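Task: fold both queries, return tokens.
Query 1:
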Amino acid sequence: MSNKKLSIVCFSGNFDKAIAAFTIASGAKAVGYEVNLFFTFWGLNIIKKKKGRSFLGKGILSKFFNFLMGGLKNLPLSRLNFGGISPKLLTFLMKKRNVATLEELIKASIDLGVNFYICEMSYVILGYKLDDFIPQIKGILGVSKFLELSQDGEIIFIS
């Protein structure tokens, strides 16, 4: 077992940035790193159980806000999104060129044992419940607990 540790803060809900986060996470885990993914704000879209638009959360404002955010199937490209078609075009190109798609990278990260954590503040503000997310979530953490978990390792912030 290696003592190499990498923690990635997934702040962005952008398609291309999610690809970067999961490529780094699965690659690092594959070569022996302990890997922690910490999802906050827009990044929570990536790990919602419902992959499309849905009214999640407590209260009308949270439900409406979460509907607008979408889910994994609605992640925009950070540049040149072209009304939402670009993620579909990139996925097509990835498949055509035999490169792992975002969904395959997520599955690889899960299969390899990458740790998934939810930011407590974002979770509370947006009115979620744990059942709104994929079952691989290891916990809901505040920043101090995340920093403790990440101690003696590298932290990457993907925004």
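Query 1 returned. Query 2:
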Amino acid sequence: MLSALPPPDDPRVLVGTSHADDAGVFRLSGEEALIGTLDFFTPIVDDPYTYGSIAAANSLSDVYAMGGEPLFALAIAAFPEDENTLPYLADVMAGAADKVKEAGICIIGGHTVKDKEPKFGLSVTGRVHPDRMWHNRGAKPGDAIVLTKPLGTGIATSAIKWGICPKETEEAVIASMSRLNANASKAGREVGISTATDVTGFGLIGHLLEVLEGSGLAAEIFLADVPVFHGVRELMKRKRVDALTGVRRFPGSEWVHATFGGHPIPAGTHQNMTHQLGRVRFPPMLPAEEAFLLSDPQTSGGLLMFVPEAKAEALCDALRAKGEGAWRIGRAIDADVLAMQRITVI
């Protein structure tokens, strides 16, 4: 899609479109560079305030994933011109405004258009020292790989839409998607990590591959150590017929769902798997559900951090001290230049 966009030839552009990074970076001086990013999506929860909050946290995440701090945001919204729907935009904006306030910034403008399907997000500008930014070419051989949030938001939000997600799982997933990656990023800066990225639409495998390929490395991932939200694996076994979603139960409805329904696995998961499968070596007889989890598209996912082994425990301690998750899920290793597969799942 970006092939028609010529690569930037301005020497002040430190990070552009060439390496699938989380955000663009533009040098202002020897001491400061601007980070620019934009993200928006359709509603993933029913509550408009929560939707705005999650969309804002997701948009801010790219700045944190570059090792920077946000400065201000612009809102982008598309809403139908419907007297029953349009008032919800104020609640969406309120959720976003409160979340960016939590990040220490504000929304200073934006743009809206009419559209049949609601969409909302932010363009965020941040700053970082040019010599201390994180990008997807910064991982080193031997780095421990640390993840700060569990996986499964794509599956869980599909189940929420279907009305089959347990309340405990729904609350945990929404709380995680609403949480900023600010403290996780701060912990990484304090400890001195090699680099980081955030886990979003391409899933854990997709974003890990971006860093490995950019850095010329491979990785081993320890499946048993990869965190997954409680209840998500059970949800993957449930089945529902889309046309009957939201319809009241009727005699034989569960049989209809179990016989003709599909699992709450997003289409994006299958698309991710198609693109990623040839570059990953899975264990023999691995259940398909486990592979799907590694490619599940995340919304406002955690940071995937690469840290020298000698600093790994210090990073995990710093993350936990700030109330963040810290799971060591693997390590980066030298890549065989002839090998197609970058990731080995153990």
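Both queries returned. Flag for query 2: The CA atoms of residues 102 and 180 lie 9 Å apart.
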